[in-house]
Design goal:
Largest sheet: 6 strands, antiparallel, barrel
Oligomer: single chain
CATH topology of the largest domain: Elongation Factor Tu (Ef-tu), domain 3
Strand order of the largest sheet: 1-10-13-12-11-14
Helix content: under 10%
Strand content: over 45%
Number of strands: 21
Number of helices: 1
Number of domains: 3
Shape: elongated
Structural class: mainly beta
Radius of gyration: 28 Å
Length: 265
Amino acid sequence: MKIRPIERTLALNATLQVDPDREAFVSSRVQGKVTAVRAKVGERVAKGQTLVVLQSLQIAETPPTVEVPSPLDGVVLERTVTTGETIDATKSLLHIADLSRLLAQAEVYETDLASIRVGQMARIRVTSAPERIFTGRVVRLSDAIDPERRTLRIWIDVPNTRDRLLKADMFAQVSLVIASSGNTVAVPNEAIQTQGAERFVFVQNGDKLVKQNVVTGERNDQYTTIKRGVVEGDEVVTRGAIELATLASQPAGGGLQDESKPHSH
């Protein structure tokens, strides 16, 4: 059990999207016939790497062979060109994006706007990796309120993993840190168990696990403050607490000691 500052958080739903400043739609800028396409969807490409080769059909164009390079390091998201195709100068051939960072787009209600600012830290979770917490920061706020929903769009910059675990268009849950209270006794949320109106934790006492009723206070996406029941230094069980609660609900408490009940001596 530790004394720690407890952050006040705002829970938001978000959608992950490609950062417009980190993507490009590649065109040839000349009319020609495609002789080779050297990139596949999902393939990583490097800035300057040749993606498409074509034979120019513009008489004044020299040289007759044109190589179209990648404008950035990234991943090919879409390919709309095939070998042998005749294209004009404005046709989009490939969609490339740098997915090393994504944007989480969320909406904040007008009543919460006073708590939002650029630079705020946020914790992001996705259902495909529930055990992972991604950390990002607010980088932009919209300048206009949605007149019907009374919400404001915000964008959070989120670093991706090396294996690109985060994907564009994924849904995400965001916990936006809007304030921090003073230091207080707090435990991870998964340590708190509930039976009816009773809240309790399991404390390691020597070689025994003791069920201890607690009075809780503020809660965020990670921790719950404890007003009464345990103190700094107590060893509170987090992993397996749900299983222990099941045992404690059985006759004789499954062998667990219950500090909330009187004992005979």
